Every structure is written in C-alpha cells, then in structure tokens.
C-alpha cells in the first residue's frame, strides 16, 4: 500500500468523536440518534462487518426529561438470580442513585442484542453534568443536534425583557389574579 | 434565552432599518451588487463546467438505472445483471436512464433523470450465462416439513465502453427518443 | 441433493483479455457433441444434429464443432472456452428443444460460470472518482474552530416556527414599519 493510500485508508476509517447534550431531551428518543453514531450508521461506508462506529460523549445526563409521569411509573427490573431476588427500581430512584444510568440503559436497549452491542457501548461516555475531562473534550469534532428545543424558564429571563415583550391584552383593573 | 435573542434581533433590525432609512439615497448603488452577483455565479459555474466538459479533463462516472437497480458506472466497468434480459452477446447498447453524471470536479444531478442526450453511456454485452446453483432449503423441526429447490438465475455481463457527457450544460435538448 | 455448492469457490467478476473494450470476441471455441446412433437417450441430440447443427455452425464460424458418435453411451455436450474452461454436460433423455436452449447457454457464456460463486456483481478499476469519503466530507467548516459543546451546533434547527414566534415577528415588522415611516417623514 502506497503512502497516499495508507493515509486515505486512515482518514476514511478514522473514529470521530461526537458530543450530545442531553439537557431536556427524552432519553429514549435520543438513544435512537446516539445509537446511529455509535454504530456508524450515519456513514456511507457502513457495513455490518465493518468496524466504523464512532465515539459519543453524552453530557448533562442529569437534566434529561421523561414524558408525562414516567419518573413515577417507569420501573427498571433487575433479578439477582436467587429466589426472591427480583427488584423493581422506579425511574426517579434510579436517577437519584446514578444520573447516567437511564440514558445508558436506553441506548443499550435501542441496539440489537448481538455480540457487538457491549463493545459498541464501550464507545459511549456519559457525564451527569457539563464537566467533561479535558482529554475527552479535545477529541470532540462534532456535535449531534438535539431533538427538542431547550425551553427557557421564566425566572431565568431578565425582567426588562419580560416587561418589553408584546402583550396581546391587559388584564382589566378589577381582575383578581389567583 | 429566546426572549434575549429576540430582543437582540429587534435591536439589529432597528439598526439596519435605520441604516436603510439614512442611506436610502445610496440604496440604488448598494442593492444591485448583491442581487447581481448570484446569477453571475450561476453563469460562471456553468461556463466553467462546460469548459471542463470540452477539455475532457477527468474521468466521468454516471449512475444508471437498469432493471430496477442503480449502478455507478465508469469506463471499463463490468456489471452483472440478474434475470431475464433480451440483449444478446456482442450487442452494443446505450443506457438511457441516467440519474446522475459527474466528473472529478462537478456532478449533474437528474430530477430524476438528466436531460436526455446529455450523457451517453455505451455498453457491450459480453456474456449471457447462468449463475451458480443456489440451494433453497427449508426445514421445520419436528413438523415433518422439508423442501429443497435448486435455482440458477440468468446472468448477463455488461462491459461499460464509455461514459461521455455528450453536449454542453443548458443547451437546448436534442430530440433523442 | 448435496451441500456441494456450500463449498463453491468464491470469486469476482472478470472478463478474459479485456473482452468488449475494443471489440467483442465470442468465448466459446470448441463444442463436442457425443451421442449414440441407436440409443433412445440420444434421440433429442440426434434431432438437433439433423435439424439445427449446420445452421449453428454457419452462424458461428468461430466455433469448432465436433461430432463424436459412440455406441451405447449417453449423449454429452462438451464446450471449451478461450479462458481454458471446459464444461461437460450430460444431455441424457433431453428433448430437441431443451438441447437447443442448453447449447445457446453454452455458446453465450464466457466460461464455466457454475464453478464460482460471485461475491460482487460489479467490477471497477476506479472505485472513486471524486475522492473517497472521509468523516470531514461535507462538514461545516465552522466546526473546525468552534468550541464544543455549543448550542449553535447542538440545537435542533429544523423545527417549524412556533405560532408565538410568528406573532412576535409580525409585531416587530409592524413596529418597524411605523418607525421607518417616522424616519421618512423626519427626512
């Protein structure tokens, strides 16, 4: 293989690193997107026998958003293998114990259960907050777009902006605000 | 955040609006530069592409639609087409359904086909035979069910002789069909 | 029934001697028809020889045709190709029509196709003309210098505009219109 070809090969099959901000994102929807990057499905060179998956760094996993009252209703099942060893952990309990666990399990379950899945999961880094180690962050060359817009809370908007925001109507003076 | 952004945008708008107001006398001088440049670019690009076509600067490729499949072809390629297909050995044929054609520097994308007569793909049929024997074996366990079928599909091998961009881009279409 | 073709030699598409690039050369060089003059199994073969063989030889002057009558042996066709392949085929009890079809297949194929399983159905010497893909093909150049994570690259930019935002923009446009009118009158 000539030097130019070798460089070409290296460039085409290089692993790139992507960052994904989980803030206010549904973990189960995001998992479907993260999965594509982890497995290399977004590349035109994809082939199931071709090791072309990328690395994904997921940040802010503490701030994920579950739908409806799923924090209370979704249960994660585990069985120790011994009689009476079944346990159900609610999503909010699991999230309190380990804020990276829900997104990790979501991505794991989004992928097909084959021998490659555990190796693919090794390429997923999850951080609960925005603090990412410098050596991880400096590899990142791309950001994966989120699915939903991150809403801004009213108390985080400066007061002058709220005051100048166009009003459709004013409340009548005798209106009692509850 | 959205509100802050909106506020900033409004400020910017006010400034640009004010500028337009202030510089309204020069607006006639300012506006055409932007509005003219775009069609000029299109013309330049097309002229440059035509220049490249004339010089035949690099190898061409095309994506052709053939018997329900799309093939990326360039000069000297071999294609194996499966299924019944009338052309016989030694036939020279022109592949008309060109979906995309390109050179090293530009691509012509058809919507869905490029203009008829713009790209000429010539191929020769060099072999018509049968594939290797494929076994179709089905078995259901414990159900006394087993089927075995053998199948050989007709295969035609095509040699692509040339992929040429025959005329210039944006030229009046010739009546080729 | 056998699993013989599970162990077929896999191969890639090739054409011998750049066939078809300049001119096309028929790959069948020699065909030998072996048959018995009396046995019923050779009936179709004898019909073919009587009715079609002379025409076949006339139409294909590049193919050498041999007839080999032999007593009390089954009918066989042997085709030899330019690339050295030799295809042996029994035509025991085959009818005239079947033999015509099989000989047409032997004439038009370019070697022993049955002996290899094709791994790819296309062959090219130039796999890429505009350059192979790399992870940086068609990427935004701004990403090279951007400090990630950055909401400008991370936020969804394909959402439709919300009704509130649309109303707000209409309001802004209306206000600007009033203002520019004011400016004009001031001028």
TrEMBL record, chain A:
- Known InterPro entries for this protein? Ribosomal_uL13 (IPR005822), Ribosomal_uL13_bac-type (IPR005823), Ribosomal_uL13_sf (IPR036899)
User: What name appears for this protein in its UniProt entry?
Assistant: 39S ribosomal protein L13, mitochondrial
Molecular functions (GO terms) = mRNA binding; structural constituent of ribosome
Record key words, sorted:
Ribonucleoprotein, Ribosomal protein
Q: Name one GO cellular component term.
A: mitochondrial large ribosomal subunit
Family named by the database record: Belongs to the universal ribosomal protein uL13 family.
Q: Which SUPFAM superfamilies match?
A: Ribosomal protein L13 (SSF52161)
| A Pfam entry, by short name | Ribosomal_L13
Tell me a GO biological process for this protein. translation
From TrEMBL, chain B:
**InterPro entries cross-referenced by the UniProt entry:** bL21-like (IPR028909), bL21-like_sf (IPR036164), Ribosomal_bL21 (IPR001787)
Q: Among its keywords, does the record have Ribonucleoprotein?
A: yes
Pfam families the record matches: Ribosomal_L21p
**GO-annotated molecular function:** RNA binding; structural constituent of ribosome
Protein keywords: Ribonucleoprotein, Ribosomal protein
Q: Can you quote a single GO CC term? A: mitochondrial large ribosomal subunit
Q: Which superkingdom is the protein from? A: Eukaryota
* Gene Ontology biological-process annotations: translation
What's this protein's family per the entry?
Belongs to the bacterial ribosomal protein bL21 family.
UniProt-recorded name of the protein: Large ribosomal subunit protein bL21m
Organism of provenance: Mythimna separata
Automatic annotation (TrEMBL), chain C:
Q: Which Pfam families does this chain map to?
A: L51_S25_CI-B8 (PF05047)
What Gene Ontology cellular-component terms does the record carry? Answer: mitochondrial large ribosomal subunit
| Stretches assigned to the Ribosomal protein/NADH dehydrogenase domain | 37-110
Domain of life, per the record?
Eukaryota
Which stretches are annotated as coiled coil? Answer: none
User: Which compartment or compartments is the protein found in?
Assistant: Mitochondrion
> Keyword set for this entry?
Mitochondrion, Ribonucleoprotein, Ribosomal protein
UniProt GO BP: mitochondrial translation
Q: Name one GO molecular function term.
A: structural constituent of ribosome
InterPro entries xrefs? Ribosomal_mL43, Ribosomal_mL43/mS25/NADH_DH, Thioredoxin-like_sf
Protein family membership: Belongs to the mitochondrion-specific ribosomal protein mL43 family.
Give the protein name, as stated in the record: Large ribosomal subunit protein mL43
- Identify the species of origin: Mythimna separata (Oriental armyworm)
């Amino acid at each position: 293989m000539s030097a130019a070809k070798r460089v070409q090969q290296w460039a085409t099959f290089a692993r790139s690193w992507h960052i994904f901000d989980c803030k206010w994102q549904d973990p189960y929807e995001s998992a479907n997107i993260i999965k594509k990057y982890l497995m290399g499905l977004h590349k035109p060179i994809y082939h199931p026998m071709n090791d072309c998956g990328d690395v994904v760094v997921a940040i802010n996993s503490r701030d994920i958003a579950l739908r409806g009252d799923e924090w209370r209703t979704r249960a994660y099942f585990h069985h120790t293998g011994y009689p009476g060893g079944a346990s159900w952990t609610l999503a909010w309990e699991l999230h309190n114990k380990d804020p990276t666990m829900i997104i990790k399990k979501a991505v794991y379950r989004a992928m097909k259960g084959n021998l490659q899945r555990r190796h693919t999961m090794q390429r997923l880094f999850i951080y609960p907050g925005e603090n990412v180690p410098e050596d991880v962050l400096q590899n990142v060359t791309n950001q994966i777009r989120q699915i939903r817009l991150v809403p801004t809370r009213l108390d985080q908007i400066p007061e002058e902006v709220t005051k100048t925001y166009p009003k459709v109507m004013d409340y009548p003076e005798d209106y009692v605000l509850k | 955040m959205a509100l802050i952004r909106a506020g900033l945008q409004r400020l910017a708008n006010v400034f640009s609006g004010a500028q337009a107001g202030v510089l309204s006398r020069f607006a006639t001088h300012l506006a055409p530069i932007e509005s003219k440049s775009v069609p000029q670019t299109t013309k330049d690009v097309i002229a440059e592409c035509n220049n490249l076509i004339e010089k035949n600067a690099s190898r061409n490729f095309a994506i052709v639609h053939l018997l329900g499949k799309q093939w990326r072809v360039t000069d000297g390629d071999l294609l194996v087409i499966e299924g019944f297909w009338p052309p016989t050995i030694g036939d020279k044929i022109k592949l008309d359904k060109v979906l995309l054609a390109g050179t090293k520097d530009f691509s012509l994308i058809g919507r869905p086909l490029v203009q008829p007569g713009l790209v000429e793909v010539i191929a020769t049929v060099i072999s018509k035979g049968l594939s290797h024997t494929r076994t179709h074996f089905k078995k259901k366990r414990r159900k006394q069910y087993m089927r075995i079928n053998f199948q050989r599909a007709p295969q035609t091998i095509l040699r692509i002789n040339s992929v040429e961009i025959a005329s210039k881009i944006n030229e009046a279409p010739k009546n080729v069909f | 029934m056998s699993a013989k073709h599970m162990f077929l030699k896999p191969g890639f598409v090739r054409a011998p001697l750049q066939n078809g690039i300049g001119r096309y050369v028929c790959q069948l060089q020699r065909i030998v028809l072996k048959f018995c003059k009396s046995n019923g199994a050779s009936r179709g073969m004898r019909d073919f020889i009587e009715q079609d063989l002379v025409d076949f030889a006339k139409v294909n002057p590049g193919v050498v045709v041999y007839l080999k009558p032999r007593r009390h042996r089954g009918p066989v066709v042997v085709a030899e190709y330019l690339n050295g392949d030799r295809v042996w085929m029994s035509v025991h009890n085959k009818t005239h029509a079947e033999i015509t079809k099989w000989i047409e297949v032997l004439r038009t194929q370019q070697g022993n196709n049955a002996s290899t399983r094709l791994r790819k159905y296309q062959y090219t010497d130039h796999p890429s003309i505009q350059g192979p893909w790399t992870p940086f093909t068609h990427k935004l150049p701004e990403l090279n210098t951007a400090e990630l994570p950055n909401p400008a690259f991370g936020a969804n930019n394909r959402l439709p505009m919300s009704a509130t935002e649309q109303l707000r923009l209409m309001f802004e446009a209306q206000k600007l219109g009033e203002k520019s009118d004011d400016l004009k009158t001031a001028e």
